[in-house]
Specification:
The complex is a heterodimer of chains A (314) and B (328). Chain A is mainly alpha-helical. Helix content of chain A is 78%, strand content 0%. Chain A has a domain of 169 residues: MetI-like fold, CATH 1.10.3720.10. With 328 residues, chain B is α/β, with parallel strands linked by helices. Classes of the chains: A mainly alpha (314), B alpha/beta (328).
């Protein structure tokens, strides 16, 4: 098991290195001069050159890249062109907002999708099943920003139950955090719930047709035992992957939703960094997202080995 | 009805609703099996042999409509609630299905899968059920049972898995064992071992067995009585020796003729021309008529022959039993 983890960590490191290279090269292709953006409209050539060389932008590309990776290994992701603050600090201070939104959204999605998906599979063809399918079709097809706007209009505007936007840290004021996280989390979570409902339904239906489920029924086990021990234990293995992919993509920051709800997360940071051509911050944000994605995938692999005995031997 | 009768089925029909109409998988079947006896249900795929047994024990697919009188140990199963029927099935009937690769749950240990029925039906604790599972694994001849009890199905070979499935089926000491083509998915040497194992266990435990098969060789050595099914109906039934020695139905005769003879130096296998009828459009008359070598007259096409005795305990569903044809 330790060897497995070490091997996966090494692989993750290589992938991260690849990510830095791709991001670095992509940013070279993006039009716009970050130094000019940072300096505004009026500046003299000396200031321009001074800032350019301080940021290392006058060096050849391979040198720029090598020094970036070298510093990144020590945790130094450079300084923001705009604010001059260290990128590592800027990115990490946005993490709690994104983490709390993503996790709340996924928990909400699971609370909705699990009973919906399982019940509609167990009663496939019933009115409940059709209703669940209409719901998930709706959630998948309606754009999340539109649902977000409707949510703000209804729950913040008309009913006044929740604040329309903004963020309060969970550690400072849990109640305030909860009331602020509700609308964005539900907006994001509904989309995730729709995807998960469909997936859970088809996964359960597939397992229900398996021979070993008939074997379990032949043994005369109570329906509850057949469903929980024999159907769900098998049906949920692939669901773990989909939940993880959803969580990982939410951890990348839901840019539109974070902007819409003025949620100061990584998505919002990425958006602002693109606007300001703040390359170091953008690189840092993308690197963080990639690292989180790899981490979630590593955890999924470990979880898989626990859930499916067939994987342990391989 | 005899007191010893374990399972009896009378006028059982199974109709399955499909998009293309109602399919009659089983069209009025009667059979019974007594304690310690082995009944073989023989027929081609789709003849209704498996479906009749699954329907009788309440395991038919949801889309199936089942009618008829089914009595397990004298109890009318239709009169029971679903929960009591389920308990009765689990306690008194054990099942061995065709493919041990797919009939075991891949994420549970074999010990757990063997023991769980005894927890539910015999009230054993989890620990006692595990001990019982080890006992059962020993009974079915799995070496180092105390270690194998914690193995997952994928860690066992096909033959071992089928032994584990048999252990699972017998854990509550059922009165009836249903074996649905239990050797079809296994290689030839393993097949013989499994057949021998079931025969041996039956002698020791006195269990009644319904053996569903298309392998007449296995049936000849194992069964006491045989029912040959075709197109959802029994076309011939009786004591194995009588039916095999003097098959009265042209279909049974053709099946026996189609058996490859290991001693003869044959280059070509004998086949029955044509294909079995679709359960969606069963003919009005004899279902075997289009493929029949005797092919009496148009009566066969129009009218369903009744199941009539040709000898004591030997019945056949044809207007032209073989003896009659030979007499002519």
């Amino acid at each position: 098991m330790t060897r497995f983890v070490l091997r996966r960590l090494l692989q993750s490191g290589i992938v991260l290195l690849g990510v830095t290279l791709v991001v670095f090269l992509l940013l070279q292709l993006v039009p716009g001069d970050p130094v000019r953006v940072a300096l505004g409209t009026r500046f003299d050539p000396e200031t321009y050159e001074a800032l350019r060389s301080r940021a290392g932008l006058d060096q050849p590309l391979p040198v720029q890249y090598a020094s970036y990776v070298g510093q990144a290994l020590t945790g130094d992701l450079g300084v923001s062109f705009r604010s001059g603050r260290p990128v590592t600090a800027i990115v990490l201070e946005r993490l709690p907002a994104t983490l709390s939104l993503a996790i709340t959204a996924v928990v909400f999605a699971l609370l909705v999708a699990f009973p919906l998906g399982v019940l509609s599979a167990l009663r496939s063809g019933s009115v409940f099943d059709h209703a669940a399918r209409v719901f998930s079709q709706f959630g998948v097809s309606v754009p999340d920003f539109w649902m977000g706007i409707m949510g703000i209009l209804l729950f913040a505007g008309v009913l006044g139950w929740f604040p329309p936007s903004g963020y309060v840290a969970l550690t400072e004021d849990p109640v305030g955090w909860a009331s602020h996280v509700f609308l964005p989390a539900v907006t994001v979570g509904l989309v995730t719930a729709s995807i998960l409902t469909r997936f859970i339904r088809s996964s359960v239906l597939e397992v229900l047709a398996e021979d070993y489920v008939r074997t379990a029924e032949a043994k005369g086990l109570p329906t509850r035992v057949v469903v929980v021990r024999h159907v769900l234990r098998n049906a949920l293995i692939p669901v773990v992957t989909v939940v993880a992919v959803q969580l990982a993509s939410l951890l990348g920051g839901v840019i539109v939703i974070e902007v819409l709800f003025a949620w100061p997360g990584v998505g919002r940071l990425t958006y602002d960094a693109v606007q300001a051509r703040d390359y170091p911050v953008l690189q840092g944000a993308i690197l963080l997202v990639a690292a989180l994605f790899l981490l979630v995938n590593l955890l999924v692999d470990l979880l898989y080995a626990r859930l499916d005995p067939r994987i342990r031997v391989r | 009805m005899n007191d010893e009768t374990v399972l009896s089925v009378a006028d059982l029909t199974v109709t399955i609703g499909t998009r293309r109409g109602a399919a009659r998988a089983v069209a009025g079947v009667d059979w019974s099996v007594r304690a310690g006896e082995t009944l073989a249900l023989v027929g081609e795929s789709g003849s209704g042999k498996s479906m009749s047994v699954l329907a009788a024990t309440g395991l038919a697919p949801r889309a199936a409509r089942v009618t008829g009188d089914v009595r397990l140990l004298g109890t009318d199963l239709a009169a029971l609630s679903a929960a009591r029927r389920r308990r009765m099935r689990g306690r008194h009937v054990g099942f061995v299905f065709q493919d041990p690769m797919t009939s075991l749950n891949p994420v549970l240990t074999v010990g757990r899968q063997i023991g769980e029925a005894s927890e539910v039906h015999l009230g054993l604790t989890r620990r006692a059920a595990r001990a019982r599972a080890i006992e059962m694994l020993e009974l079915v001849g799995i070496p180092s049972a105390a270690e194998r009890v914690d193995a997952y199905p994928h860690q066992l070979s096909g033959g071992m898995r089928q032994r584990a499935v048999i252990a699972m089926a017998l854990v509550c000491e059922p009165d009836l064992l249903i074996a649905d083509e239990p050797t079809t998915a296994l290689d030839v040497t393993t097949q013989a071992q499994i057949v021998e194992l079931v025969a041996d266990l039956q002698r020791r435990l006195g269990t009644a067995v319904v053996w569903i098969s298309h392998d007449l060789g296995v049936v000849a050595g194992l069964a006491d009585t045989v029912a040959v099914m075709y197109g959802g109906r029994i076309v011939e039934q009786g004591a194995v020796d009588a039916v095999f020695a003097e098959p009265a139905h042209p279909y049974t005769a053709a099946l026996l003729a189609a058996r490859p003879d290991p001693d003869a130096n044959v280059t070509e296998l004998v086949t029955i021309p044509g294909t079995p009828p679709s359960p969606l459009e069963l003919p009005e008359g004899c279902a075997f008529w289009p493929r029949c070598s005797v092919r009496g007259d148009s009566r066969c096409e129009r009218e369903l022959p009744p199941l009539v005795p040709v000898a004591a305990g030997h019945q056949v569903r044809t207007f032209y039993p073989r003896q009659t044809r030979e007499d002519r």
